[in-house]
Every structure is written in structure tokens, then in C-alpha cells.
Amino acid sequence: MQQDLEQLNFNPTSTDGEKYCDLDRSTAGYDYDLPEELIAQNPAVPRDSSKLLVVNSTSKNNISSPLHHIFRDLPDILRPGDLLIMNDTKVLSARLHGRKSTGAKLEVLLLEEREQNCWLALVKPGKRFKIGSQIFFEAPGFDGKLTATVIDSDKATGGRVLKFDVPSAQSLVQLLDTFGEVPLPPYITQSQASDEQYQTVYANTPGAVAAPTAGLHFTPELLDTLEKKGINRAFITLHVGVGTFRPVEVEDVTTHTMHSEWIEVPPATVEKIKATQQKGGRIIAVGTTVVRALEGAAAETGEIREFCGKTNLFIYPGFKWRVIEGLITNFHLPRSSLLMLVSALIGRKNLLNIYKEAINEKYRFYSFGDAMLILPEKEKSCSS
């Protein structure tokens, strides 16, 4: 069942009595200037050589000076007994190039599968692309053509619903690596990155059209080191949609309608979270997608539970946290829902000040950029 939780579990004041000002609820309060040269066009090589800005917060009114590290330092920053929650979604080769019956070229970006081989997609150019129109795709080494027919339109996205005619006993997903390519975000315009570099090393469940970018910094060697140090991990799945890049277009944040994304929080992950909490360990989300999945799964009952379905949970300052205590995240676009989510954890003013320092220190921003680790406000000690 799709959740409708935008106004659920929000408080006008924080637990330490901090009142939220008008700018916390105004999109204008989440604006900042970023030099274009700091928008990362290629990933760090190796992945864990990216910068890591560590924020140790004691309260939303008193954030200690950020500490500058390299991402591979993570095992020495976290503590035995901590639990990292990761998103194992895998990015689809969701960008396809085709032609109309007239021969005119088209670009198709798949957004989500509505039913078997029927996909909501953005078609460019597509303003006059009416129901019944066809698109033809070709690929080297593939015997024949792949065809899609427009069967509906979607007002919310401006997209089209395409029904793909695929060979019997096959699905479009099985053909995407043949016909498509992994789509990079629109602000990455001069990249030499391979498709593999826009996947996490633990990507396992196909379905996303964008990567959970906080996870791009991990290498197999770093995961091994974390495990040897007693820092555990578990997984959720959230299939990241194109809506994650879109700015909040309303001025009043509280009136924004969040896009929906499919999530799964499995029983094994719930068990690990509860066991970690009982022992005094810290729950640290790797990325905002993990935050949405865990808090979305916990919002209705007040505690973490297994969940499979869609969530449109929108997190902004005043949100009452149920599960996560720390966060690993990249640096996000101005006026984005992701910036508002991180502000809900450490405060909008604090976050913007931290971004100023990151800019001054030439951190790289967005999907292929550097990372930030926000540690819990209150120290905890693990029991034996």
C-alpha cells in the first residue's frame, strides 16, 4: 500500500526546544551558490579516495567544527557495534535511443514499470507524441527490432506510458543492457565514467534510474575492513527515481507533494536494527534513500518493521526521527528535498554553514562528488 505521510510525525519544535523559523519551511531557505567547477563530472579513483567531511553534533544549536578526512578512514571513525544500512538497488540501463516511423530520432528515459513490459517514460522530444505513436529501437547484434507503442500519458511527470513488444518469454529488463545505457544525472555533462562506476559495488536488485550515490564511495576492501572492525551492515532496497533530482517548486515546503518510490525493508534488516539498538549500537544510514526507506517503514507504527511497497514520505525540519541516528551522504542540489531531509537531522543553518566550508575547501558536489558523515547527537556506548 502506498503511504501518504507528508504531515505525519512532525513537531513544531525539536526535542531540545528549538523552534523552527519561517525559512525552515520556505524553499528559499535552502538556496546556496555553488561554483560550477565543483560539480563533479567523474568519480574519484579509487572510490574510497574521495573526501569525507565529518560532523560531530552535540545539539542542533551547537555543531562542532567539521573534521576533514578521506572516505577510507571510515573504519577508524565509526565504532564496533555500529550498523550501516545500505541500499542494494541496481541502476537500469534506462536511457534508450530510438526513431519515430518518420525516421526522426527520439530519446527515452524509463521511469518505472507499471505492468509487465509497460513503462512510464520521459520521451524527448515528446510534446506531440500522441497515443498510438510508435518508437523503433535497434541494437548491434540483436536480430530484429524492439518496438514500443504509446498507450497513455501521465500529467504528473509529462511522460508517456509505453507498451514494449518484446520476444516471447522475455522482459524488457532483460533487454535493457542490449538496447539501453545507464543514465547519468543532467548536471553531469562531461563524464568519462563507465556504467560500472555509476553502480555501488553491492548493487543487487535492478530497478533504479539513478544511483544511491552515498554508496558509490565503498570498495570491496573497505567493506572487508569495516566488517573486521565489528562494524556491521544490512540492506534495504529503494529504487531511486528521476524525481530525486527535481527541485521543490512550491515556496511553502509543507505543501510540496513528494514523488513516490518503491521500497523494501526485509525482516533480516529489521532484526539487525533491533539487535543493534538493544546493544547500544548506532544506526547509520548510507544515503538519503535509506533514510526514506527506514523512516517510511517506521512512520505508521512508530517503530521499524518490515515493509514492501511505495512511500512518498517527505522529511523536512520538524520531523520526528524513529530509526536512524547517523547519516553518510553526498552534497545535494539547492532547493532539493534531499537538502531538506539532511537539514531535518542537523538544522538548516548548520547545514548551510557546513556547505560553505565544503565549498571553501573545494569539496566536489553531487552524484560523483565527496561525502559527509553526520554522527548522532548523543553519544552511546555498546553493551557487551
UniProtKB/TrEMBL annotation:
Pathway: tRNA modification; tRNA-queuosine biosynthesis. The keyword S-adenosyl-L-methionine applies. This is S-adenosylmethionine:tRNA ribosyltransferase-isomerase. GO terms for molecular function: S-adenosylmethionine:tRNA ribosyltransferase-isomerase activity. It is found in: Cytoplasm. Monomer. Transfers and isomerizes the ribose moiety from AdoMet to the 7-aminomethyl group of 7-deazaguanine (preQ1-tRNA) to give epoxyqueuosine (oQ-tRNA). The keyword Transcription does not apply. Its EC number is 2.4.99.17. It catalyses: 7-aminomethyl-7-carbaguanosine(34) in tRNA + S-adenosyl-L-methionine = epoxyqueuosine(34) in tRNA + adenine + L-methionine + 2 H(+). Belongs to the QueA family. One of its GO terms (biological process) is tRNA queuosine(34) biosynthetic process. It is an enzyme of class 2 (transferase).
